[in-house]
Amino acid sequence: MTETGFVILPPVVPMLPVKGRDETFPVRRIYCIGRNYAAHAIEMGHDPNREPPFFFQKNPDNIDTSGRFPYPVKSADVHHEIEMVVALKSGGTNIPVDTALDHVFGYGVGLDMTRRDLQGEAKKLGRPWEIGKAFEHSAPMGPLVRAEEIGHPGAGRVDLKVNGQLRQEGDLDQLIWKVPEMIAYLSEYFELAAGDLIMSGTPSGVGAVVKGDVMEGAIEGVGGIRVEVV
Asked: Is 66 exposed, middle or buried (0-12, 13-18, 19+ CB in 10 A)?
C-alpha cells in the first residue's frame, strides 16, 4: 500500500487550461455527438435530416494539450475532426432546454482524432466505436474560454487547415442539435456534472493525416488550435 492509502498511485486528473486564468479545468467525462452537421452526415453516407442525436464517449485521459499528436498504432487511416468543446460547471438530470446554458463554464477548440479504418470495421460488425475513437492522445484540445467573457456562441466560422490547405469549413449555426438541446438530451440518460465536456460535432471535409502534417483549426469567437502529427 502506498503512503496515500491507495494500493496503487491514483491516476492524475486530466485538466484543460483556462485562458487568462492560473486555475485549470478538471475533466470528468467527455461526451461526443455524432453526425451533427448535415454536410458531414452526407459525406459519411447518412441521411442529413434531423434524427434523434446519438453520443459516444472518449476517455478523459485521451486529452492532449501538447500540440503534438503521436500517430497511433494499428491504423493506416487516421482522420481529423474539428469540433467546438463545451465545458460544464454544473449538471444534473432532466435539465430543461431553456436553462441548459446556465450549466456551461466555457468553450474551446478540440480535435476528435479517429482511426477511421478501425471505426469502419467496428461499424460493419455492429460493435462499439471506442477502438476507433477513444485511443491515447485522440482528443487534442486548446484552452477553454469562459462563457462570461465570450457569451454562448451560436454562430461563427469553423475551419481546419492541414499544411496550410483548407480541409474543413462550416459554421456553428449549422449544428443540427444546438448546445442547449445536447445538454438537455444527455441529461435524460446521464447525470451530468461539473467537469463534463461535450464535443459538439464536426463539419464536412474530414480526411486523413500522416506524420509530419500540421493541423491548424479555428472557431470564430472561441479560439484556435495547432497540432503537429508526429
From this structure: exposed
Residue 141 · residue 16 · CB < 8 Å: yes
CA–CA separation, 177 and 226 (whole Å): 27
Q: Cell numbers 483556462 label which residue? A: 18
Report in angstroms the alpha-carbon separations of 163 from 86, 152, 208.
Answer: 27, 30, 12
Picking from 39, 32, 31, 30, the residue whose alpha carbon sits closest to that of residue 176 is 39
Domain positions in the chain are: 15-229
The CATH classification of domain 15-229, taken from the options 3.90.850.10, 3.40.50.300, 3.30.390.10, 3.40.109.10: 3.90.850.10
Q: For residues 227 and 198, is the Cβ–Cβ distance under 8 A?
A: no
Q: Whole-prediction pTM value?
A: 0.94
Check if the beta carbon of residue 24 is closer than 8 Å to that of residue 100.
Answer: no
Q: In this predicted structure, what is the pLDDT of residue 114? A: 98
> Residue for cell digits 477548440?
109
The one-letter amino acid at 114:
T
Digit-coded pLDDT (tens) for 62-90: 999 999 999 999 999 999 999 999 999 99
Q: Which of 73, 101, 97 is nearest to 89 (CA)?
A: 101
